[in-house]
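# step 3/5: fold
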Amino acid sequence: MPIRVTVWGENVHEHKHQLVRDIYPDGMHACIAAALNRDPGIKARCATLQEPEHGLTDAVLDETDVLTWWGHAAHGQVEDAIAERVQQRVLKGMGLIVLHSGHHSKVFKRLMGHNCDLSWREAGEKERVWVACPGHPIAAGIDRFFELPHEEMYGEPFGVPEPLETVFISWFQGGEVFRSGLTYRRGAGKIFYFRPGHETYPTYHNPTVQQVLRNAVKWAVPEQRFGWGCPHVPADKAPEPIGSTGGSVH
């Protein structure tokens, strides 16, 4: 069975800015989905902010192994209930790939438990993305570094918890550096944050970026699905006999 991916896009800049429409005539989400679908082991579809329940109904998430998330201008328009729904699905095993300005999304901030702040500059400068963990599956097939001729700068410090692995580190033409590829586990779910992807540059058309995204999907695929909850376990169901405690302390 192919890995089932839902590519979520805010789909706001594409409607407001001609430059973005010129680069991504069908939307950034469609470009990302097309890149993923070039791998026969992946089956990607799109969902956007404007759809009912932002396209992330229970039925859609039931058929999603990995969710990718790009947002920027409309983080506040994402309903809290939907952010909570996605968070719970990640805890139960769904993979999550957070892209570029999705660092400030409700979903990512909930899962990180932090402000996820950073410094930034939009000056069209060169970004050199270094592979910091060459043996990692997300870096498979990627050279020592790759370059994007024009990108938005993100700079340290990055207000996130210490990651499990730092897969990529970026250097920018202005001198700043940034941890651009970070992995986490929350509950049973795997999370990858990948920095490149400003809307006014053709970053998601870049073949190396597309390869990173395909690698990340394969890494983030669920290893298990776990149903969290707080079930009551009666004393007669305990693995070992329990003597009288003299009353409840709960």
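# step 4/5: annotate
Residues 146 and 166 are 16 Å apart (CA to CA).
# step 5/5: archive (pending)
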